[in-house]
């Protein structure tokens, strides 16, 4: 079977929020970084600083209402992912101009070059799939979201 693995295995306990109230891009980033801080034990301010630094290089809002803010952080033990579906979309400065309502924060150890890129590719592949993105938007609870982002999807053309 031709397929691709989702990314649920990268999302730790407490790593999924459904109905996040953000209000604006910085509110979204702040909330995701606080979520990641609870998962990693690193200070939220450090995570937010690194994510904001990365965001100055170019938007991580890649289109279709999805964004993958990401950063490499010294002292992080392993690749860590936090997922949020927002209650209301926010202006993110995405490439296509669409507001963002699904965000996946990717944090990697400073020296995890290949692992970071592989994780980013897995997340990007999932979020570029219209069926996966639609299912994420419709997920009513954390367990459903985890199933959606972990599902093996058939990528063959019909």
Description:
- Helices cover 39% and strands 28% of the residues.
- The protein is of the alpha/beta class.
- The protein has one domain (8-148): Mannitol-specific EII, Chain A (3-Layer(aba) Sandwich), CATH 3.40.930.10.
- Strands 2, 3, 4, 5, 6 and 7 form a six-stranded mixed β-sheet that branches.
- Helix 1 packs across helix 2.
- The radius of gyration is 14 Å and the shape is globular.
- Mean pLDDT is 91; it is low at 152-158.
CATH class: Alpha Beta
How much is the average pLDDT? 91
Shape-level CATH architecture: 3-Layer(aba) Sandwich
How do the SSEs run, as a string of H and E? EEHHEEEEEHHHE
- Main β-sheet, in a few words? 6 strands, mixed
Helicity, as a percent range: 25-40%
- Structure summary, number of beta strands: 8
Distance N to C terminus: 13 Å
Oligomer: single chain
CATH topology: Mannitol-specific EII, Chain A
Quickly count the helices: 5
CATH H-tier superfamily: Mannitol-specific EII, Chain A
Notable features of this structure?
alpha/beta, two-stranded antiparallel ribbon, disordered C terminus, 158 residues, 28% strand, Mannitol-specific EII, Chain A, globular, six-stranded mixed β-sheet
List the SSEs and their pairings.
Layout (H helix, E strand, L loop, with lengths): L2 E2 L6 E10 L4 H16 L3 H12 L5 E3 L2 E2 L2 E4 L6 E11 L9 E10 L3 H16 L1 H9 L3 H9 L2 E2 L4
Parallel strand pairs: 2-6, 4-7, 5-7
Antiparallel strand pairs: 1-8, 3-4, 6-7
Helix pairs in contact: 1-2
